[in-house]
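Response to reviewer comment R2.3. The reviewers asked that we include at least one raw input/output pair. We reproduce the pair for PadR family transcriptional regulator here without editing.
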Amino acid sequence: MREPTFLILAALGPGPLHGYGVIKAVEEMSQGRVRLRAGTLYGALERLEADGLVAFDGEVSDGGPPRRNYRLTDTGADLLAQEAARLRANADLAVARLGLRGT
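Raw output as returned:
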């Protein structure tokens, strides 16, 4: 799984967000390293929705134009958990291997 996809799914972990909320959450989680453009995000959300990983969760409006909310599906949450475990295992392996340097 590519990092932007992982971060989009992680952004939706706590609950539904609209596109701008996802963009800001991804930027914050990555400490500014990953900055999604709107076109990139909405293309990814369409793909993730087609794959059953995210779902449309209604529109909200705070006086401005309505914003589409998206939520993580159970399938998306399961995949995110699996990917997080895989990344954690790989990181643990790398740290252990680094500990063997010079021995």
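The longest helix spans residues 74-99. The chain has one domain: 3-99. Further pairs are available on request from the corresponding author.
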